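STRUCTURE:
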C-alpha cells in the first residue's frame, strides 16, 4: 500500500513521541493511518536539528526531509513562494491583531541580506507558514501540528489553497488517536489509546477517544 505523505511539525513530533522516549508508539500510530511523515527543510534545520531522535528517524528513512528543489524548480517558483509567504503571514498577523489575544505577531520584515528561506526569528510562526506553502506546492493532503492557531491555519488554507482537486487537512495528536480509534481493525486497544492521551497531557480528551472507539467497536 502506498503511504500518504503528511507534513510533521516540531511540537507534534515531540509531543506524540514524548521527546523520543516513545518512538515505537509514535511509529505504530503513524503506520496505523498509512502515513509517511515528511518534514520541511526550514523546520528540519532550524527546529528539529537539536533532537538526536529526529536525526535517527531521518537516517533510518522513517522521516524524509524534502528539499526545496523538490517543489521549487526555478526562480519564478521561488518568487511565487516568497509572495505567498508574506500574504499568509500577514493574514495570520492581522487575525491575531483583530481578536486581541495574548499572542501577537509583528509585521514580517526580512533583512536585505536574507530571504524567507534563510530568515530565522523565534515566535514568528515562520515554520507554520513554510509548512502550509510546502503542502500547497506538493499537494500534500495533511499537516500534523500542535500549533495553538490550528483553527486559524485551517481557515486560511481553505480560503487560499483549497480547490476542487485539493484540500489541506490540519490535525493534531489527539485527532490522530481518534482516527486510529475509528479504525475497525487496528493494533491498539481502547485502553492503550486513552493511556497515550493521558501521557501526552490530553486527559480531558480521553472521552472523545473512547466515544470514537465505541461507535466503531460497539464499546
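SEQUENCE:
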Amino acid at each position: 500500500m502506498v503511504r500518504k505523505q503528511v507534513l510533521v511539525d516540531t511540537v507534534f513530533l515531540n509531543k506524540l513521541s514524548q521527546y523520543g522516549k516513545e518512538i515505537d508508539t509514535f511509529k505504530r500510530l503513524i503506520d496505523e493511518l498509512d502515513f509517511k511523515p515528511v518534514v520541511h527543510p526550514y523546520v528540519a534545520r532550524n527546529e528539529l536539528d537539536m533532537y538526536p531522535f529526529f536525526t535517527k528517524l531521518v537516517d533510518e528513512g522513517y522521516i524524509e526531509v524534502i528539499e526545496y528543489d523538490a517543489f521549487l524548480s526555478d526562480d519564478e517558483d521561488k518568487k511565487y513562494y516568497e509572495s505567498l509567504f508574506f500574504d499568509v503571514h500577514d493574514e495570520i498577523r492581522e487575525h491575531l491583531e483583530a481578536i486581541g489575544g495574548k499572542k501577537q505577531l509583528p509585521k514580517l520584515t526580512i533583512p536585505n541580506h536574507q530571504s524567507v528561506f534563510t530568515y530565522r526569528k523565534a515566535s514568528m510562526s515562520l515554520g507554520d507558514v513554510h509548512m502550509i506553502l510546502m503542502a500547497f506546492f506538493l499537494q500534500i493532503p495533511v499537516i500534523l501540528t500542535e500549533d495553538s492557531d490550528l483553527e486559524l491555519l485551517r481557515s486560511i488554507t481553505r480560503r487560499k489553497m483549497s480547490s476542487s482537486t485539493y484540500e489541506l487537512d490540519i490535525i493534531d495528536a489527539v485527532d490522530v488517536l481518534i482516527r486510529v480509534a475509528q479504525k475497525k481493525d487496528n493494533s491498539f486497544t481502547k485502553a492503550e489509546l486513552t493511556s497515550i492521551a493521558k501521557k501526552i497531557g490530553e486527559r480531558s480528551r480521553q472521552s472523545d477517544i473512547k466515544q470514537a472507539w465505541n461507535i466503531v467497536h460497539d464499546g
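REMARK: Strands lie at 4-8, 35-39, 64-65, 142-144, 169-171.
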